[in-house]
Amino acid sequence: MPQNDQALLTRLRDNGLDFVVIGGVCVVFHGAPLATFDLDICCPFGTENVRRIEAAVRDLHPFHRLTANKLPLEMCLANHVRADVTVGKRP
């Protein structure tokens, strides 16, 4: 599935997530000619925000991209969330 940054940002906003865009995409949004292929955000990991992340991406089937067996993203309010994830069906 091709990544659609605008659609993902809209999902996050529509679910009330408190976040800011950082990294290469932020630079592109400000007009710099830079090629980037990921979307980096920064957000507080309070209970409500973690629930909002889960609601925003649940149907996208996010998974941890850096684990050998592509573990699904699981929200754990005690430990919050490990955020290096990819959305889409696991390969």
- Mean pLDDT, as a whole number? 78
Runs with pLDDT <50, length 5+? 79-84
Determine the oligomeric state from the structure. single chain
Largest sheet: 2 strands, antiparallel
SSE arrangement, N to C: HEHEHEE
Describe the protein in words:
It is globular and about 35 Å long. It starts with a helix and ends in a 5-residue tail after the last strand. Helix content is 31%, strand content 11%. Residues 79-84 have low confidence and may be disordered. Helix 1 (5-14) packs across helix 3. The chain has 91 residues and is of the alpha+beta class.
Question: What's the gist of this structure?
Answer:
The chain has 91 residues and is an alpha+beta fold. It contains three helices and four strands, in the order αβαβαββ.
